[in-house]
């Protein structure tokens, strides 16, 4: 029997780039339509490093919400070499920050102010461990001598593993995992309950060959870059396993078409236009639609110590056409992932 309608608790997105200004206004309605809460990335220009920045950014997000939409942005602090432990802890205790984000300096978009060495922020990490504030990690080494396809695995061995040993009670989310190595590492530490991993829809759906299918496809370029098929299969297996550490984080990361289709194009896939439908497609291909709710709506809140949503949403098996483009402002647009293509599932809203 095939399932034609799926009702699940309203999901949350544990990793989102909403940007600011006209881009925020253009992309926010998509995320807020499907997800009840989202962890908002702080890599703005300039980055949101202090609680006051995050509180102001949260107010701009709430002001940009369409009428009548219920959506809670959960804010993060952008860690730098200069982050003050007390300042950060106050932001967490005051309820402004839900977590702090570690970008190794220059690992990805707007990460130039990121952390240059974990030694420098050891007191900050100690304080975070004490107060139970999660550390969200972009897990790639930045040495240009390390092959781009190896940067996550090398990060796990040389940085993440010693970090967990040095801070045995720190709670950590390894963001947007892309390798079988990451899946195995997270599983090996699952019993501690202190490690989680987000998985994007695009990493469940593409491997590295797709980026070069018939020509170079800049809209499929993101960081960490998609890996070979064996890794994609490991991600699908993990996401659809129902296991507690794995949860939904789209890493939807909009850039304008001009910024993507350039000699040096920006990293990021914009999946928010149809995020849930994309995940449903990946879960159905694996024959595991029954596990979508655990991944999308239960495992994340449990990790963050929040209640799962009391709202419910429906997905229906009928075609959805992904928008060709999303207009940002006159002459500027974002191209959604799978732009113009037909997906098998449709988001049918709150029920
Ligand atoms: O592809 C990506 N885009 N990866 C990141 O880590 C950052 C993001 C962005 O902000 O554009
Ligand atoms: Zn991201």
TrEMBL record:
UniProt: Zn(2+) 1 binding residues: 15, 17, 101, 251
SUPFAM superfamilies per the record? Metallo-dependent hydrolases
Residues that bind Zn(2+) 2: 101, 138, 176
The cofactor binding remark recorded in the entry reads: Binds 2 Zn(2+) ions per subunit.
Q: In which pathway does it act?
A: Pyrimidine metabolism; UMP biosynthesis via de novo pathway; (S)-dihydroorotate from bicarbonate: step 3/3
- Name the positions where substrate binds: 17-19, 43, 138, 223, 255, 267
Task: Report the cofactors.
Answer: Zn(2+)
Residues bearing N6-carboxylysine are: 101
Q: What Pfam families does the database record attribute to this sequence? A: Amidohydro_1
Per the record, what are the reactions this protein catalyses?
(S)-dihydroorotate + H2O = N-carbamoyl-L-aspartate + H(+)
GO annotations under biological process? 'de novo' pyrimidine nucleobase biosynthetic process; 'de novo' UMP biosynthetic process
User: Main EC class of this protein?
Assistant: hydrolase
GO cellular component terms, semicolon-separated: cytosol
Q: What is its EC number?
A: 3.5.2.3
UniProt keyword annotations, A-Z: Hydrolase, Metal-binding, Pyrimidine biosynthesis, Zinc
Residue ranges annotated for the Amidohydrolase-related domain, each copy included? 13-307
Q: Where's the active site on this chain?
A: 251
Extract the GO molecular function terms from the UniProt entry.
dihydroorotase activity; zinc ion binding
The residues that cross the membrane are none
Q: Can you tell me which family this protein belongs to?
A: Belongs to the metallo-dependent hydrolases superfamily. DHOase family. Class II DHOase subfamily.
Q: How does it assemble?
A: Homodimer.
- What is this protein's function? Catalyzes the reversible cyclization of carbamoyl aspartate to dihydroorotate.
Descriptive protein name:
Dihydroorotase
Question: From which source organism is this entry?
Answer: Azospirillum griseum
Q: Gene symbol?
A: pyrC
